[in-house]
Amino acid sequence: MHPLETRKRALALVRQGRSLNSVSREMGISRHAISNWLVRIAPTPRSPACVRCAPLPSAPPDVTAYAYLLGLYLGDGHIVSKPRQHHLTITCADAWPGLIDAAEAAMHRVLPLAAVTRGQKQGCTDVKSFSTHWPCLVPQHGPGKKHDRAIRLESWQQAIVDACPWEFIRGLVHSDGCRITNWTTRVVAGQRKRYEYPRYFFTNKSADIRRLYAETLDKVDVEWRTTRRGNETYNVSVAKRDSVALMDQHIGPKY
């Protein structure tokens, strides 16, 4: 048994945005124990379980975490909503452990009282947060695949994206995007030289989700263009030097 003050300190670190792994390493306490404390120990002051279910619905208090989590959901997330089971799942590649920690931290910051777990699959990890309120907070949830249904932001969500555009973009890139380095050769003064240049790709089958990404890039003055895979438009590419520099400043590669 850990003293109450130790448990409170661990929970305070998590609610500051720290991942369970980093708090576990710093304090020498298992992730499982900290996760259980998040459910069993009520924070003070206690926040409403769901701001959307309140008599006067409002935006989540941590709008930066929400914007990031919304981007992750639109890329690699889904919600299970059944009579006896409700959870938000973000699927993260094991190649990016920092992304797994960031998804978990964002879930804790958006719904601090909800239990969060990790489920290992081949090559990836499902980060799950259990609460009946996720459909309230992510009204884009619905039957079928996201690219088979209309995806529109509600006014309160759009206000958050407008206030935190880079966090929304970062969530989308971390889920369905990448930063790569292209190269080409040119003949200069009779010698062939190799030139490398970075670019960002965002790939999603949903035209609505690609539109949300592109519209948000416009708001932060990032130039983009679409590229095709066969006969279909799948990718949004950022390749101009100044725009890539902006993306590097606010997004950077996955880790």
In short:
With 255 residues, this protein is α+β, with helices and mostly antiparallel strands.
Give the arrangement of secondary structure elements.
Blueprint: H1 4-15, H2 20-27, H3 31-40, H4 63-76, E1 77-82, E2 85-93, H5 97-110, E3 115-121, E4 124-130, H6 134-137, H7 155-163, H8 165-176, E5 177-188, E6 191-203, H9 207-219, E7 225-229, E8 232-238, H10 241-250
Antiparallel strand pairs: 1-2, 2-4, 3-4, 5-6, 6-8, 7-8
Strand order of the largest sheet: 1-2-4-3
Shape from CA axes? globular
How many helix segments?
A: 10
Largest sheet: 4 strands, antiparallel
Query: What structural category do the secondary elements indicate?
Result: alpha+beta
Mean pLDDT over the full residue set: 88
Give unreliable regions as ranges.
42-48
**What is the strand content?**
25-35%
Name the CATH class of the domain at 171-250.
Alpha Beta
Quaternary organisation of the protein chains? single chain
CATH topology of the domain at 171-250: Endonuclease I-creI
Secondary-structure element pattern, one letter each: HHHHEEHEEHHHEEHEEH
Taking Cα atoms only, what radius of gyration do you get, to the nearest Å?
Answer: 20 Å
Q: What is the CA-CA span between the terminal residues?
A: 34 Å
CATH homology-level superfamily of the domain at 171-250: Homing endonucleases
The total of beta strands comes to 8
Give the CATH architecture of the domain at 171-250: Roll
What does this structure look like?
It is a single chain. The chain has 255 residues and is of the alpha+beta class. It is built from ten helices and eight strands. The protein has helices at residues 4-15, 20-27, 31-40, 63-76, 97-110, 134-137, 155-163, 165-176, 207-219, 241-250, and strands at 77-82, 85-93, 115-121, 124-130, 177-188, 191-203, 225-229, 232-238. Mean pLDDT is 88; it is low at 42-48.
